[in-house]
Structures are given as C-alpha cells and as structure tokens.
Design brief:
alpha+beta; Gamma-B Crystallin, domain 1; 198 residues; rod-shaped
Length: 198
C-alpha cells in the first residue's frame, strides 16, 4: 500500500499542477475579459456623458439663434444694387433712380458735382450727380432731357427717343445737347442710364 500511496502522491502533484495551470490561464483570461468589458463600458459612459453635456448648450444656442434669425431675417446681406431711398427721392425730387453701383449719387446742384442733366422735368431745370469713383453706373428715368454737362469725368449716357435707345458720349468738361436740345432732330428724350467712363 505504501507503493500505491507513493504512486498516488506522485500523480497528485502532476494533476494538481496540471489543474493549477489551467485554472491560472482561465483566471487570467477572465480577468483580462473583465478588464476589457469594464474599460469599454467606461469609455462609452464617458463619451455619452460628454455628448449629453456638449449637446445641451448647443441645442439651446442653436434654438436661440434660429429664433433670432426668424425675427430679424437673414444675417447676411444680398446686394441688389437698388438705389437707396429711391421712393423718397421720387416723392421729393420727381426723379426715378433705379439701380447703380453707388459711384454716381444724386446731389444738390449747389454742391460740387461732376454731372449735370439738364431737363424740363423739374422747376430747377436740372439734376446734379456727384461721382465717387473712376467708373460708375446708374440706371434712372429722367424725362424731357435736353443736355448733359460733365466736369471732371467723361460720361456715356443712354437715352430713349421715340422708343429707340441711343448712346451719347460726353467727354469730361463738356456740354452735349440731346433730345429737344439737339438741333438736328429735336424730340423728347428720356435719360435711362449714366456710365462714368473716365
């Protein structure tokens, strides 16, 4: 029996050792798996918390900005080149100013000006414009124009006479009879565009 007991003892450490190694591997695998699961849950929980915390103020800010944009209109400007206060100018001065690039502006004739449009349309007998750039354009409507006078800038004027549009070049520091002021073909002219050419 002694021999049998020794054999059993000899086998026991081998079995225990074998069993211990498997247990150790399984234990380590379970530990690594558990650490991975805990790490993943922690990452997702942190990301969720960050997303909720970040999204809340943005949602309120976006909602507030959208509400303000609806009340105030768009926050950007779209240039349509319409003449500013054209309705007021029509009421006060009797001249239709449509569109332009902002370089030809109606002014008082007592002020320094660079373009004079002589007309029978108003009591003063002319409209005056100042030029603020090397070039410029203005679409307008002035009836009964009989002359255009320039000072420091050359102008190209488009006029409608008897339904046909013609172009007249007026050099700087010059006076050009047009429409009823034209001795060759006196007819009522409507000034429809001014362009500063130099």
């Amino acid at each position: 029996m002694k021999a049998l007991g020794e054999r059993a003892l000899l086998r026991l450490p081998l079995c225990a050792a074998s069993f211990g190694r498997k247990s150790l591997v399984i234990f380590r695998a379970r530990g690594m798996l558990l650490a991975g699961v805990v790490g993943t849950v922690t990452v997702f929980a942190g990301a969720y918390t960050l997303a909720v915390a970040s999204a809340a103020p943005q949602t309120r800010a976006t909602t507030t900005a959208a509400a303000n944009a609806d009340e105030a209109g768009p926050s950007y400007a779209i240039e349509d080149f319409a003449y500013p206060d054209a309705d007021k100018v029509l009421t006060e001065k009797g001249i239709v100013l449509r569109k332009g690039d902002g370089h030809i502006m109606l002014t008082e004739c007592s002020a320094p000006h660079q373009i004079q449009v002589w007309t029978l349309q108003n009591a003063e007998g002319k409209y005056c414009f100042r030029v603020t750039g090397e070039t410029g354009n203005l679409t307008l409507e002035v009836n009964k124009v009989h002359a255009i006078q320039t000072e420091e800038r050359a102008v190209r004027a488009s006029l409608t006479v008897d339904g046909k549009t013609t172009t007249v070049e007026v050099p700087k520091d010059d006076y050009k009879p047009v429409g009823q002021g034209n001795g060759n073909n006196p007819a009522p002219a409507v000034l429809v565009e001014l362009k500063v050419t130099g």
